[in-house]
Amino acid sequence: MFHYLMYVSYAVTPLTDAELELLLDTCRKNNELLGVTGMLMYIDGKFIQVLEGERDVINGLYDRIVTDKRHKKISKIIEGKSSKRNFPDWNMGFKSMSGRDFESLAGFNNIEDYFLAHEVDEDSHVTLIFLKLFYNKYFKTMDLIGR
Prior knowledge:
- By secondary structure, the protein is α+β, with helices and mostly antiparallel strands.
- Helices cover about 40% and strands about 30% of the residues.
- A five-stranded mixed β-sheet has the order 4-1-3-2-5, covered by helices on one side.
């Protein structure tokens, strides 16, 4: 069994592309060592993240996030057990509204391709349903009107 946790938070100050790249690189390296998978979305100073892995590891990561001075208004959306990972091949999937500069980073997974390839139905995990709804509201509509 895997433990999953989804939270949202606000950045205390908006992150630059360089800060996001450093954060993403650090997360991916640490997550790989800890056996953690998941996804991080960042839009206009707001984060939504899903973490998957061993319960103690995920709880430890979340405790660190809660005390991280870069975050405020942290809200845990949902957590629980799952028999499988929703992001098994992702050290940390990522999406930012600042463009596609992050695609060249190691481990980048294209979220649009992922959501197109994975239909949400009654058997879908609640985290995937929530993320797809979030994506459709905040990202897909932005693509339609042009960034």
